From TrEMBL:
<feature type="binding site">
    <location>
        <position position="158"/>
    </location>
    <ligand>
        <name>substrate</name>
    </ligand>
</feature>
<keyword id="KW-0418">Kinase</keyword>
<feature type="binding site">
    <location>
        <position position="65"/>
    </location>
    <ligand>
        <name>substrate</name>
    </ligand>
</feature>
<feature type="domain" description="Aspartate/glutamate/uridylate kinase">
    <location>
        <begin position="5"/>
        <end position="234"/>
    </location>
</feature>
<dbReference type="InterPro" id="IPR001048">
    <property type="entry name" value="Asp/Glu/Uridylate_kinase"/>
</dbReference>
<dbReference type="GO" id="GO:0042450">
    <property type="term" value="P:L-arginine biosynthetic process via ornithine"/>
</dbReference>
<dbReference type="InterPro" id="IPR037528">
    <property type="entry name" value="ArgB"/>
</dbReference>
<comment type="function">
    <text>Catalyzes the ATP-dependent phosphorylation of N-acetyl-L-glutamate.</text>
</comment>
<dbReference type="InterPro" id="IPR004662">
    <property type="entry name" value="AcgluKinase_fam"/>
</dbReference>
<dbReference type="GO" id="GO:0003991">
    <property type="term" value="F:acetylglutamate kinase activity"/>
</dbReference>
<feature type="binding site">
    <location>
        <begin position="43"/>
        <end position="44"/>
    </location>
    <ligand>
        <name>substrate</name>
    </ligand>
</feature>
<keyword id="KW-0067">ATP-binding</keyword>
<dbReference type="InterPro" id="IPR036393">
    <property type="entry name" value="AceGlu_kinase-like_sf"/>
</dbReference>
<feature type="site" description="Transition state stabilizer">
    <location>
        <position position="217"/>
    </location>
</feature>
<dbReference type="GO" id="GO:0005524">
    <property type="term" value="F:ATP binding"/>
</dbReference>
<keyword id="KW-0028">Amino-acid biosynthesis</keyword>
<keyword id="KW-0055">Arginine biosynthesis</keyword>
Length: 262
């Protein structure tokens, strides 16, 4: 059996504690309507909280966390442990069978340490074991993936969750990629944009309209659009669900000048 029509849904760390029953039902609806969702999640704020409790200092460079071995241990504990299992558990409570794992399990995500040595143990995805993910979908599970990966020598690396979602979507030939975050979409001059052309993103970052955690998100969206992907949307989890078909609205990042947000 071949799995087609895959939708990758990235749940931002900003949302993982606030996701509603409606959101989990929309994932169940995707599964039932053959959109075959895969969840990739973050957990940045939870990692920050734990690092604070443990009095470990940490900083971000262009939206990426400088990751020492000590920080990696906390990131893995929070992402692969706490957040991953909470999402699996919520999905299963709403009747969706879910299978949680990190990029380390089954060699799901292979990464290489980024060239910027200052960032420490931060990874860039070089390979995704799509057969493993597809077999889970074929067996009736929604895969739930935490963005900790390993390099070919087994060294664990911290991967930005937006980049991990984009890599999974590209490798598996997903039809759609949704970034669920704590804002209704990308705001330009204070208003939500329905769509933004990929070529405009760099200038918007330069102008400071897009900053912080939205930078890796739009960059991941842009990188994803080089493949077969038809649609990349950045949206909020609440109040942006089209009740008629369970789809989420927000800001679509598009290749072409004019394309209606459907
Ligand atoms: N132009 C923009 N429109 C909307 N949000 C933006 C924009 N630029 C920066 N942001 C910030 O990006 C945040 C979302 O990124 P982030 O906190 O990393 O979310 P997540 O955890 O969902 O990945 C928003 O809460 C907002 O503070
Ligand atoms: C390298 C890097 O920055 N990794 C991220 C992984 C989690 C993440 O991306 O979570 P969000 O969805 O909340 O952004 C981190 O350590 O915070």
């Amino acid at each position: 059996m071949s799995v087609e029509n895959i939708t990758v849904v990235k749940c931002g760390g900003s949302t993982v504690n606030k996701l509603t029953a409606e959101f989990f039902k929309s994932i169940a609806a995707m599964r039932e309507t053959g959109m075959n969702p895969i969840l990739v999640h973050g957990g940045g704020p939870e990692i920050n909280r734990m690092l604070e409790q443990m009095q470990i200092e940490c900083e971000f460079v262009n939206g990426l966390r400088k990751t020492t071995p000590e920080v990696l241990e906390v990131a893995e504990m929070i992402l692969s442990g706490k957040v991953n299992k909470a999402l699996v558990s919520f999905l299963q409570t709403t009747g969706t069978r879910a299978f949680g794992m990190s990029g380390v399990d089954g060699g799901l995500i292979e990464a290489e340490q980024v060239a910027d040595q200052d960032l420490g143990l931060v990874g860039e995805v070089v390979n995704v074991n799509t057969a493993c993910i597809k077999s889970m979908i074929e067996n009736g599970f929604v895969p739930v993936i935490a963005p900790i990966a390993a390099d070919k020598n087994g060294k664990k690396l911290n991967v930005n969750a937006d980049a991990a979602a984009s890599a999974v979507a590209q490798a598996i030939g997903a039809k759609e990629l949704l970034f669920i975050t704590d804002v209704e979409g990308v705001l330009i001059d204070g208003s939500k944009a329905d769509y933004i052309q990929v070529e405009k993103l760099e200038q918007l970052i330069y102008d400071g309209e897009i900053y912080g955690g939205m930078i890796p998100k739009v960059q991941a969206a842009a990188a994803s659009l080089t493949g077969d992907l038809e649609k990349v949307v950045i949206a909020g989890a609440d109040g942006h669900t089209d009740q008629a078909n369970g789809k989420l609205k927000g800001t679509a990042i598009i290749r072409e000048q004019v394309q209606a947000l459907t």
